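User: Good morning. I'm curious how zinc ion would be positioned relative to this chain. Could you predict the structure with it bound?
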Amino acid sequence: MKERDYYPAVQRFTKSKLGCFTTAVDTGTKLGRVDVVGLKDVGGRLDGEGEVVAIEVKRGRSPFLASIGQAAAYSVLADRCYFADIRDSWTDEEFEVAQELRVGLLSLGGASRPRVRIALDAPRSTSVTSLRAELVERLHYSVCTICRAFFRRGEPGRFRQHVATSSPKAAAASNKGFMYWLEEQDSRSSNDSALLYTRRYVCPGCISALWPAASDD
Ligand SMILES: [Zn+2]
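Assistant: Good morning! Here's the predicted structure, ligand included:
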């Protein structure tokens, strides 16, 4: 089996055991791609905070240090990083390195429908805010400026599928979120094109709560 053949099992595990509500494979930014990425809500009932989980998958034949180094590098993009490898056990030395690099370990069974289990939980890492946000956008999600939660902004090939751009009221009328651009902040960015790229979002839930649909006023 190729490395990719293990992605679906890891994806299922990322949902069922790591608590992610969406996952993607082989997704990334200009900096590089991540084998399996997931998004999860961690703020409970009273906060919108989410986490990005990134997993490097290997099939048991790669040098440990190089592979876990790849997983550790994901920490610029993600809040929790794991290295998944085909094996039954890990040595004390490997556990020590994983803890030092703040990477979790997942053991993959080698079968065609492999079992995945957590050997070491991933601690939280400090991602680079702008790079993390870029990765989230690649999953067709964005972060709501108001409630701070992830929400589904688009679909493959349809970046703005679930957001309106004309006004919050128009967004409310179409049960969508809202996407808007910030001129002043954009002028301070490195953007030298005529188009504005600095943008923010409001999720459909916040829109419908705060901007009653056009018919209501
Ligand atoms: Zn919101």
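The chain has two domains: 3-120, 140-216. The domain at 3-120 is CATH 3.40.1350.10 (Trna Endonuclease; Chain: A, domain 1).
Let me know if you'd like a different ligand tried.
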